[in-house]
Write a structure and sequence with these properties.
This protein is an alpha/beta fold. It has a single domain, classed as Alpha-Beta Complex (Spore Coat Polysaccharide Biosynthesis Protein SpsA, Chain A). It contains eight helices and nine strands. The strands form two sheets. It has a seven-stranded mixed β-sheet with strand order 5-4-1-6-8-7-9. A hairpin with a 5-residue loop joins β7 and β8. α3 crosses α5. It is globular, with a radius of gyration of 16 Å. The relative contact order is 0.18.
């Protein structure tokens, strides 16, 4: 990667050109009837954990969700350090492309660090790394590709205007997958081995999207 800074830490001052985007509008069918965004993980709502970690790299966060989620999420993030604004899905549960597109309509900074609401272990140092790579290489996106080929699309940094346009084009096409939107971008890919070199644990990508996963995460934290 050419970084070679083993002791790198997230800077205490948030990046002025980076805004957080939390995607929380899905119906959480695998989680059951409750909304996983506000489900408590060891006493703290999951979305609160995500926003608190985003606070280490930005002072502004947009939450994309359904309008019926607003009250519970607003309560969950009350008192968070970042300024939190809401971008409501005009049509509910259309997938990550639609959620990111809706959220980006409210983002007014050059880059957005997009994170799913069910990723409470997101590592701020990873977001910092992706932001740096996108800036340094003039890319429209910085994403992680794991050894199994899985590209992490909902823990990534995007150039806001370009990604919004890519999402719009994707939603108008037959292939509405998030990877189809990313394929429209000039992107830099960070390999799993590079994360290990930077001391970033793959726990950052853990998705707590079932009750079983919630219990396992609670046991580990406790």
């Amino acid at each position: 990667m050419g970084m070679g800074v083993q002791s790198r830490r997230v800077t205490p001052n948030p990046r002025s050109d980076l805004e957080g985007l939390v995607v929380a509008g899905g119906f959480s069918t695998r989680f059951g009837e409750a909304d996983k965004a506000v489900a408590e993980l060891a006493g703290t709502p999951m979305i609160r954990r995500v926003v608190d970690r985003l606070a280490e790299v930005t002072d502004r966060v947009v939450v994309n969700c359904r309008s019926d989620q607003e009250s519970a999420i607003r309560e969950a993030v009350s008192g968070c350090e970042p300024e939190v604004r809401f971008a409501f899905d005009p049509v509910p549960d259309r997938g990550p492309v639609a959620g990111i597109h809706t959220g980006l309509e409210l983002v007014d900074r050059e880059f957005a660090a997009a994170v799913a609401c069910d990723m409470p272990f997101v590592d701020p140092e990873l977001l910092e790394l992706l932001h740096e790579r996108a800036r340094e290489e003039g890319a429209d996106a910085a994403v992680v590709e794991l050894e199994d080929g899985w590209i992490q699309t909902t823990q990534a940094v995007y150039r806001s205007e370009t990604m919004a346009r890519a999402c719009d084009e994707t939603l108008r096409s037959e292939d509405k997958r998030i990877l189809a939107a990313i394929d429209r971008l000039e992107r830099v890919t960070v390999e799993e081995s590079a994360l290990e070199a930077e001391g970033i644990d793959l726990e950052t990508f853990e998705s707590v999207d079932t009750r079983e996963a919630l219990r396992a995460a609670e046991e580990r934290l406790e």
